[in-house]
């Protein structure tokens, strides 16, 4: 097996000039000033080697031994993660074990080695490489991160097949800012925390395991800094701001002085957050908002609680479908929902039924590529035409409801017909469980995501037949301003502060409250502290966001009064452009919370 480094997305000469300012995704908060330590990742290059029939048994033995050795290595990583970074970080390696232990993957490798008679490393690389390609080509951060997980497991397994065993990255000898193209969880974990002051990577997103580990280890991190690793060399001085996503190479003396002052202000702010964890998300004049988290895996519920959240407002259930080639069984789904419900009980767990289609394809469900996938066959539309899959998921959710405060949420509802049809399937699934005498909550609450403008227009009708609303601002913005949120060519049109989007949010909240049902927000808009006064002023009841955003949002809420929020929302809704609204809201919040890390750009 040969190793080759990744190629840059565009050609950049090594940067040797003055101060260079780059931007990425702020993945773990904090400000660091240090020297670059470059880490070159491995990309296996495995050649197809035909083997004789008599070599097949030996290749299969090699595979079994490598599986055992890799599993033991992952277990060691898990133990290390548990000891140095906590439960959430350790669970990352549970996901790696699931990938390695997948029966379909293992049987496929054994069958192909026997049938095609190629060396086992080539077959392993081909099988897992195909899964990585599918994930990489699927739009969305979640899938790119899952591709990174499979890549980490593949590289580790191939090393054991080749007889090299675990090869850990070269450790720095002094405190550094680690820069890499793509940092695997294994690499991140096995570096000495005390010598890594910060992490910057060319790739990755907010939910990447590198980002999760960096947050668990309390290491400032910025990911998605395109081609950074090709612009710097070892030893370069660098400033990294994990609050804003800014990375500065070769900072000037005045820049260094500025960021040393920001470091001190940030540390003071963090100290003030630690006292808020067990306090309610309550405004200064006593109005309480529920602050919940968004998750994809059960163990992430622990992180929500650890950050001061009081429930899960969005469990993205399609993750189980997209990380494997076969459809998860009802029992497998039940185990997953039950674990999350048990962690949270008696706090609420809102499970969104699978949102497949669009950019989230699954090979065994026969979802075909479409010309306009985001306007096509996706989410509830798939559920209502694949009743077998839908009913199995609903039974699993209903069964989990006997152990916790579980709720069902339907995605992509555009009209009353889909809602009524979906609720009828819930009733059928409930009746089946009744006949089998399987316990479940017959009064389980059923709500919808409001993310299509047509749903807002008829929100009064939908509210009469829903137990709750949750506004999905990512899709609602996309469909309102007709700008694909994954298309860089139109990204400047995608504005969640657009007056039309804000009016739709206001209309949804009013319709929900008129019907006496709570209205939540579960899109990225809810994680933006600048939007918090506006959302509170409009009357939002619940905000569900990524776990790490919870402390800042809680701090923001507790600093504001409802009287001020209503005034701010009223004035913002009179404005005519997104830029005008965003500038106004930023100014209002900055005047009240001058030490919020988002200002430390």
Describe the structure.
The protein has 601 residues and is α/β, with parallel strands linked by helices. The chain has helices at 56-84, 87-101, 103-116, 120-137, 141-162, 185-190, 209-216, 253-273, 300-306, 319-322, 330-344, 380-385, 387-400, 416-435, 453-457, 459-464, 473-481, 499-514, 532-538, 550-559, 562-574, 578-592, and strands spanning 2-4, 20-23, 25-28, 31-39, 43-45, 176-180, 196-201, 221-223, 237-241, 246-249, 290-295, 312-316, 348-352, 405-410, 446-450, 468-471, 519-521, 542-545. The protein has 22 helices and 18 strands. The strands form 3 sheets. Strands 2-10-9-4-6-7-8-3 form an 8-stranded mixed β-sheet. An 8-stranded parallel β-barrel has the order 11-12-13-14-15-16-17-18, surrounded by 6 helices. The chain has a two-stranded antiparallel ribbon with strand order 1-5. Helix 1 (56-84) packs antiparallel against helix 2 (87-101) and helix 2 packs across helix 5 (141-162).
Largest sheet, if any?
Answer: 8 strands, mixed
Total count of strands:
18
- Uncertain segments: 1-11
The residue fraction in helices comes out at 40-55%
Shape: globular
* SS element count, helices: 22
Spatial extent as radius of gyration: 25 Å
